[in-house]
Amino acid sequence: MVKKFSELLKCSSKNSFSMKSVTALRNSSSLKVVNNTIIHHFSFLLPFILRMHFVGITLTKSLKRKCSCFLLGFTRFYDRKAIFRGALNSNALCAFLCTLAYAAFTLIFTELKYEESDDFYLASMLSGAYGDAPNACTMFVNTLFGFFLKPLYLLFPEWNWFLFTQLFFAFFVFALITYILFQRLGRSFGLFLAVLVFALFGDDIFVVCQWTKSAEFLSMSGALFLIYSKDSQRYILWTVIAFVYMLLGSWVRYEGFLEMLPFMLLLYAVDFFGDLKYKNIRQYIFGEKRFVLSVFVFILILLLSLQVNKNSLSNEGMQLYRHYNGLRASVMDYSRSDMVGFKEDIEEAGLNMDDYKLFKNWVFYDPDVFSKKNVQTFYEAARDNSYGKMRRIEFILNSHRPVLIMGYPIFWAFCAFFLCVFFTNRKKISLAFLALLVVVSLYVYLLYVGRLPYRVEFGLWFGGSVALIWLIRAPQKSWKPSFNVVLLLLLGFWKYPLYASDRVAENSFCTEKDREKISSDLFYATSYTPARYLKRPYAHHCFDNLKRELASHPENLYMLSHLDMIRPQYCWFGAYKAVPVGYFKNQIFLGFWTIYWPDQVQSLKERGIENPIKELVNDNVYVVGKTVVEDESLRKYLVRHYYDSVRVDLVKTIDGVDIYKFRAVK
Q1: End-to-end Cα, the chain, rounded Å
Q2: How does DSSP classify residue 577?
Q3: For residue range 286-345, what is the model confidence (pLDDT) as tens digits?
Q4: Alpha carbon of 325 to those of 329, 591, 595: distances in Å?
Q5: Model's pTM, two decimal places?
Q6: How far apart are CA 312 and CA 315, in angstroms?
Q7: Under DSSP, is residue 451 helix (H, G, I), strand (E, B) or coil?
Q8: What is the DSSP string of 298-348?
Q9: Strands 557-560 and 113-114
Q10: In Å, how far from its chain's centre is CA 550?
Q11: Which of 140, 188, 408, 496 is surrounded by the fewest CB atoms within 10 Å?
């Protein structure tokens, strides 16, 4: 072969060479064996050769002639079609292109939106909307992730980096899972499963986003990459990728990472029982020393990151914020109590049910009445009067959750992967039933404690599905590409309403019907709603006049009703845009989980306000939203605790939203 190459280089001019030699060389079996190696090394030499020949470095005529002759022969020897076919033979490239096509198609033809309002306000806190600069410290997101986002907000303040970062890493999750499926199961059958992953899990990541779902998705995917690294030739690379994803999942939301821990253990159990090389765990540990060591290294890194986050939130302001909102969440989100006993306990402590109802309706920014001590009383009363075991079991038995689950695409994804295990690895079907048992057990537990929003359910089915994916084997018979075509057609009919949803052209007006649709429970609900994936979360510049009104009077303080204003504020910016620094400094909720946030406390101090609800009667302080005004509950609260008489005047109505002024009457 070397001799034939030397003959090729002996041509007498740069435009002539032996076609006979090239033909012989093309048909050489020995060259076919090493041609990939030649291409690899030549890719490094080619730029240098081109630079020497064309830029003008002094070379002899003979050497120039030989270089030109070699390049011309090489380009004719490796025609473009062969190079293109070689690129398509790369599983990594094909996985990337498939994911790119899916992500581009989804983001272009659908309307990305948040499942809940929490994501929007978390992003606002990180972008500095309540203070004077982007802030890396929040209660829910690890400070290390905040420090990673802060430079992006400083350099490009107009974009929502909290969302974009999650989408960026989620994109590569889909690409890497597709690559693993190609490597383990073959291109055709792997593509079949990858399409199922895209279609049945992708909408919850790319269409209706939620940070808890992202944390679950990233964490469990990282666990899959770590188990794949065990037998990979590129062990270090895959281990690093796994560490990055599991850490990122824990940083986005640690509770989401914790939810995935049972499924991580399930995944490793599936790997242990599915590998016939080891008879017991001791043999597995010693046989997989490198993998076990990696797990311990990750645990140490995780604990270190948690300690760093804890130290960064140790100041007095953050401690108050975290403690207060922890109590608030325990009362609002987790309590199931007998109200008769609850009422007796709080009245004995000097509190009353009218105040508690305001608290439950997100009106509690009063450091005197709703102090940390009094909220602690609410929590203890709710805990002491919590429903008993039999009542909770009754809730489980009467739950309509099984009916709701039948409508989840993520549930059908689990079923599809379960069937794949049944047909391709029937000997391990008992492990598939184990995955189902883990999911059902966690469902029962979460129903028992009364905390099962859809974002948590997503993690249960995704975690179980990843364990099933690891059990699937390549089919014994060759997989027909026609099966993939049929699947794409079926999914196309099913997905057509999503991609052809109500994409109405933007107009310069907004109807009352549009505002009612935005303010309905369709968006920011805790349960699965198929219509939410189809509809737009905003349309026709709704609430733009309200935005201009509040922004044009920075001297005023607007106290916002929670249920009236979370959707208008989201409509002003959407999911992609970041709220500018300081934009919400004069817009404070009467009660929300941003209460006692240090940036917000500082903004109020700059106005000389220490008790926002008590000081509603001050000049330049207004209430926006009628929910807490029309039933007079807020006015009665002020009379009950602070003033002899309070008058409420409607100042103006803008975009269907009422603005009120409270005045103390002597």
Answers
A1: 105
A2: B
A3: 778 888 899 999 999 999 999 999 998 888 889 999 999 989 988 886 666 778 888 888
A4: 6, 11, 8
A5: 0.84
A6: 8
A7: coil
A8: HHHHHHHHHHHHHHHT-SHHHHHHHHHHHHHHHHHTS--B-HHHHHHHHHH
A9: unpaired
A10: 31
A11: 496
